[in-house]
Amino acid sequence: MHLIIPKSYDPKLSVRETQTAIRYIRETFQEEFGKQLNLSRISAPMFVEKKTGLNDNLNGVEKPVSFTMQDMGDETIEIVHSLAKWKRVALKRYGFDMHEGLYTNMNAIRKDEDLDNYHSAYVDQWDWEKVIAREDRTIDYLQKTVKQIFKVIKHMEHEVWYKFPKAVHHLPDEIHFITTQELEDRWPDKTPRERENAITKELGCVFIMKIGGQLLSGKRHDGRAPDYDDWSLNGDIMFWYEPLDQAIEISSMGIRVDAESMKKQLKIADAEDRLDLPYHQMVLNEDVPFTIGGGIGQSRLCMLLLGKAHVGEVQTALWPDEMVKKCEAAGIHLL
């Protein structure tokens, strides 16, 4: 457990006022987000069959919550970690056309998460995915999409300021782009997390690109599953967050693997056995569209816009007793 207690913390809003603000942010953001990126809202599963290969493997060490169902024989069912792969199949199944996409209200359980101010075992995010052309698989298209998302987040800052002026946390006016290798070149003696904090504090908001592959040092900046994001065409949107004096990640996203990048990345990850799974066969046979997609943390966005000190102030989850007591003593009211 790692907990940061800001000095002289003032939550600005009462618990009930915070609940009103949460609802407003979530409802307003998803409408504007869908409109700007040409996305339609659809329903999504909370669990999938293990044998499909659809679940997000995250860093490869986290174990999903699993169970069996009375009418499904001995099939292992897994609570999703995210819908990274499922969405791409859904775009094909539901007949989405070029440059159309979907977003969904994704709820997940990540029982192996290290709990802190930003991380919870309960994950709530807008998972989204959009059909693109083969020629759209470029850094330029990726950055264009990132700028669209940043624009929507900035729009939300103004909306929240209008409704809750005493609570809004002000954001920078521009997003910057940098690669993980550029960060290592600049700060070779810092850890990846220290580099993220340093660049985000300097620039205010950054999209850190190319996450998952090996850097020149032989190390990786961070882990990424090898079978959904193309490691050369992905990244994280991060804001400098003064209340906690560190960066906060709002979105992880990227252009998805094609057949060649998936085979290459699975080989690097020593996970070529996945190639026989149904989802991976669809990618190999180009039986699913080329796509771009990601997730935007709902509670993280509420936390950012309202200047909250702990994600538990904007979502209901479970926390260690020690964390609850320390937060309560500091005026941080966990839901």
TrEMBL record:
Q: What class of enzyme is it?
A: ligase
Q: Which InterPro entries match?
A: aa-tRNA-synth_II, aa-tRNA-synth_II/BPL/LPL, AsnA
Pinpoint the Aminoacyl-transfer RNA synthetases class-II family profile domain residues.
23-320
- Provide the reaction this enzyme catalyses: L-aspartate + NH4(+) + ATP = L-asparagine + AMP + diphosphate + H(+)
Q: Which residues cross the membrane?
A: none
Major location, coarse class? Answer: cytoplasm
Q: Tell whether ATP-binding is among the UniProt keywords.
A: yes
Q: Which GO terms describe its molecular function?
A: aspartate-ammonia ligase activity; ATP binding; catalytic activity, acting on a protein; transferase activity
Keyword entries, A-Z:
Amino-acid biosynthesis, Asparagine biosynthesis, ATP-binding, Cytoplasm, Ligase, Nucleotide-binding
Q: Which HAMAP family match?
A: AsnA (MF_00555)
Q: NCBIfam families, alphabetically?
A: asnA
What family does the database annotate? Belongs to the class-II aminoacyl-tRNA synthetase family. AsnA subfamily.
Protein name (record): Aspartate--ammonia ligase
Q: Which organism is it from?
A: Lactiplantibacillus mudanjiangensis
Query: By which gene is this protein encoded?
Result: asnA
